[in-house]
Amino acid sequence: MPGKRARRHFLQLSDFERGLIIGMKTAGWSTRPVAGQVDRSECAVRNCWEQWTREGIYVRKTGSGANRKTTRREDRMILRQALVAPTVTRSTIRADVGVANVPQTISRHLAEANFKSKCVFRALPLTPEHRQLRLQ
């Protein structure tokens, strides 16, 4: 779709990209070719270069982000519930921990801790031996 920017333009610059921008600008490149080379907007390139010339550093600024709805203690309790009973539902965890959050918050906390969902076996998987006996 023409006129619609790719999502990449709104992501933070990585340290590698910042180094590339500073190196190219130091070598005498203008802003537009640098932006085309690193596939970023001219504004991002200009801001990076201005920060470098003004402060002498090119660190990424921290984002504000939303405040967390749960405390660290509640986060640990959520993870512990998921460890003890891997097949328990989000609503059950929410009720056990006693937090007043939506179930998506529980899912997000589990995803941050790299927990995967586990489902209950509906039936044991058949081995080749079982299949053979069943066919007979």
Describe this protein's structure:
Helices cover 54% and strands 0% of the residues. With 136 residues, it is mainly alpha-helical. Helix 1 (15-26) packs across helix 3. The protein starts with 14 loop residues before the first helix and ends with a helix. This is Transposable element Tc1 transposase. It is found in: Nucleus. InterPro entries: Homeodomain-like_sf.
Question: What general outline do the C-alpha atoms trace?
Answer: elongated
Strand content: under 5%
| Helical percentage | 40-55%
Total helical segments: 7
Q: Specify Rg, calculated over alpha carbons.
A: 25 Å
Main sheet specs: none
Q: What is the averaged pLDDT score? A: 80
Brief digest:
This protein is an all-alpha fold and 136 residues long.
Which structural traits does this protein have?
elongated; mainly alpha; Transposable element Tc1 transposase; single chain; 136 residues
In terms of topology, how is this protein built?
Layout: H1 15-26, H2 31-38, H3 42-55, H4 72-84, H5 90-97, H6 103-112, H7 128-135
